[in-house]
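Q: Can I see a sequence and its folded structure?
A: Here is a first one.
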Amino acid sequence: MRMHRRLSEIAAALVALATLAARAELTLPTIFSDHMVLQREEPIPVWGWETPGQAVTVLLGNESAQALAGADGAWAVRLRPRSAGGVPLTLAVRGSSERTVEDILVGEVWLCSGQSNMQWLVRSSLRPEEEQAAAGFPSIRHITVPRVPAGLPQRDLPACDWKVCSPETVLDFSAAAYFFGRELHRDLGVPIGLINSSWGGTRIEPWTPLSGFEGVAPLQSIVDRVYLTLPDRPEHKAAMNTYLEALTAWLAGTRQAVTREQPVEPPPAFPQQCLLLKNHQDPTVLYNAMVHGAVPFGIRGAIWYQGESNHGEGMLYLEKMKALIEGWRQVWGKPALPFYFVQIAPYQYGNENPEILPRFWEAQNAAAQLPGVGMAVIHDVGDITNIHPMNKQEVGRRLALLALARTYGREGIVWSGPVFREMRIEEGRLRLSFDHAENGLASRDGKPLTWFEVIDAEGEDFVQAQAVIEGKDILVSAPEAPRPVAVRFGWHKTAEPNLMNRDGLPGAPFRAGNVPVIDYLQRHVPEASGYTLVYDLDLASLGATVTYAVDRRAEVRPPFDRVAYFLELRKPDERTQWVYVSMKAFTDDLARIGVPTLASKAHFQTRVEEMNVLSNAPGITSGTGLGMGYIEFWPHNYGPQNAGGVPGASNDVWDFGDGPSDPVDGYGSMQVHNAEARQTLFAINHWKAAGGADIGIGNSPDKPVVPGGNATVSRTRDWTFQGNAAQYATRRLRVLVRPVK
């Protein structure tokens, strides 16, 4: 009876909704409001909703057009293109009622989107009082779209209004958008409309329409995720039908169990992956709510300032930029829609690997080469201590240079700094050639060029290079690299290089050439020539599952009499450190000499004999036949107590005598020690944490820790709790054995 009553209530609600729809009044999209700007020299789309079958008349100035509301109430017309200027227009739309929009200008309209640096207001930028006093530009209009997500494309934007630029309003305009629009207005002399649809901290995926993702094969997993949430997709229907079948079976079984007074099981779990996406970081949701409702409103192009929230993705971001750009072009029906964006500025990003951000810049450089796309470089006006550079005036100006030169065809405008084109190897140096250096290259501060590095053909690391300008080229060299083969420029998250062209625009970071592949093991450890490789592991791939790049267990057969480990680590801007440790075999099971995961069944807290150590790391005691080697290999949690009774080990410090504890599948330790020297040779702990794993050569630096919330402050020598893996640009482990001949 309750079910029938609920169905009756739903039916009544549907009838009520149908009655309301039949009596619907004339409605215009939110973006059609007083003070708006229409795109000049293009057909003007006007649309809205009415009672189905109702005739609608649209009047703009002295032009009129008619439409008939369809079965869904939607109607649309396209008015003739108009030139900029003239007196403000009034839009009148008449149907079952009448709507009017006043003070309409015709000019240039741009969509302005991204995360917090686009959302950033004029009031929070440089010299806000000065900018407020100078904001007498009534032909610049700005509309801010409220920040809401939606799982399905919405027919309209959330309620918002166009604002006329004035000292009373400008402080709440998007700063990047306003300063961009102001430059256009000053140069073009036409009204400017700025649609600010931005949200701080957001990723690129929420702003991308589904059609954009569908066109980029590497992003298929995102497409699959969205498909599952859409009620009209077969993937959603299949998942829901599977759930409903399971639920039906459960209902039948539960009824029988209740009748028979038997225990019942809980119902099958609802497939959460089928729910509409609603978090503001989910794919498509901000496009659905904050952009789709503006389509097909006339726009000239788009500016974009985003990337901080995706900056760890490297070249994958290029694919996501392709999806965003092509997606917006598709929905607006403009295959050549201009798209200009800001290359994010240098920033500290905590203790993050300094090479992560340059790899992201590399993706942005590549995106700038897409047709109709341009990038404003701002490395010279950022602030490495503030992720929100205050000088939005220059950000807007550089975006405007791109638009004026490439969209509006203004001649004589330099819109880019020097862009690397070619590297040539000469005797003892590299010659670098650049585009966008027609008037020559220069140093911004008059000092020698900074942030150029080279690597020698036999070199093990990049070294700082001297860079000399020669016309449109730069010659780079370094005494430590007599045969340079590769170069990188600005390759650090805090790099603020001083290279610019003589027109005052900075160069973007890049790298070129072939970095030599150095086998430190082969070069520095003669003993290893008699050993056979079993495992090769890129420690950047650590995680809940350890997957070796090379796993030769099936090929290498016992017996073997020695086991060896070679760990190499490199932090950005530092030379590679390595350690080689070999020892008498402590097991004959190859599965138990690698990372001691639970699956490996490795658990050793034992002394190892005849240990040989070789390393270039400062402080490591090298030698052969060392007699106080200890290993701590296990997947367990562990404490600092000297449970192994190792001579010289501490009961209070995590070192070479720690005690494993539950859970078995816990923190995890892979440590080799020289107890006589009271030294950790190397450690790989907490591998499940991936970039937060503990990795190191030698004793870890003093660091107070409070494990598990315990207020007792302790110390560690074996890298426990360091969580430092992501700090290394290179982190590689090889495991070898010496076969018995």
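Q: Show me another, different protein.
A: A second, unrelated one:
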Amino acid sequence: MKVRGFFYCPNLMETSVKNDPVVAIAGVTGAVGAEFIATMDRRGFPVRKLKPLASSRSAGKAIDFRGQKVVIEELNERSFEGVDIALFSAGSGVSKKFAPLAVKAGAVVVDNSSAFRMDPNVPLVIPEINASRIR
């Protein structure tokens, strides 16, 4: 499965992500959310803490992450406090509402929805074409 997306972080060059980041995944119960987790595992991506985020229907359930059960939290306005990287795959409506809050909280945001594709202040990254924009 190819996952396309882009970063939403106006001051990316000024953002420093830790070597052991707290990673939030908005839409963790969907197919792309599961692929985010699988890709982090395959690549040995360091994660100090995973914050799985989803709707109230999934809150309280648990997912497996690196041999541990992690409880899914309901996505809300305070979900991104202390988060270094926020991965979004919950639809453009959710991204439009919560991605700016994640950026304001200090997270680097990767969003695969169409929410910010036409925003001139948001770099659109298509790895096969312009992967260098990620920097």
